[in-house]
Design brief:
By secondary structure, the chain is α+β, with helices and mostly antiparallel strands. 45% of the residues lie in helices and 19% in strands. The termini are far apart.
Length: 109
């Protein structure tokens, strides 16, 4: 169902790190519900996974809709919270002085 070739990941840890957790993070960021995936073990071996979901509150639902409307570019970084926000460009001092002079000068017609 996840499009992983049989035998690609030897252990559950590899599958969890490279496939399950990124998929869960993306679904939780975009869907109107949240999911969780928990391994079910017998001894030390993971035999299956248990999937649960619940409805998001209105604030989380609004954020999921907003993220779905943003471009896909940079989505992984936004979901992971590793995006660096930069300030908008600040005009130069000379531009500010020119604009101030224009504003203060009397208009002649």
């Amino acid at each position: 169902m996840l499009g992983v070739q049989p035998g690609r990941y030897k252990t559950f840890g590899e599958l969890n790190k490279h496939v399950l957790q990124p998929a869960v993070a993306e679904v939780n960021a975009l869907a109107p519900f949240s999911i969780s995936v928990l391994p079910v073990k017998q001894g030390k071996r993971v035999t299956s996974v248990r999937v649960g979901w619940l409805r998001k509150d209105s604030a989380a639902l609004h954020e999921a809709f907003a993220e779905s409307q943003r471009p896909r570019f940079g989505r992984r970084a936004r979901i992971a919270g590793t995006v660096e926000h930069i300030l908008p460009p600040v005009p130069s001092i000379s531009r500010l002085v020119r604009e101030d002079r224009k504003r203060r000068s009397p208009k002649t017609s």
